Amino acid sequence: EIVMTQSPDTLPVSPGEGATLSCRASQSISNNLAWYQQRPGQAPRLLIYGASTRATGIPARFSGSGSGTEFTLTISSLQSEDFAVYYCQQYYKWPPGRMFGQGTKVEIK
Amino acid sequence: EEQLSESGGGLVQPGGSLRLSCAGSGFTFRSHVMSWVRQAPGKGLEWVSVISGGGANTHSADFVKGRFTISRDNSNNTLYLQMNRLGVEDTAIYYCVRDSAISLMTAAVTRFDLWGQGTLVTVS
Question: Cβ separation of B111 and A46 shorter than 8 Å?
Answer without folding.
Answer: yes
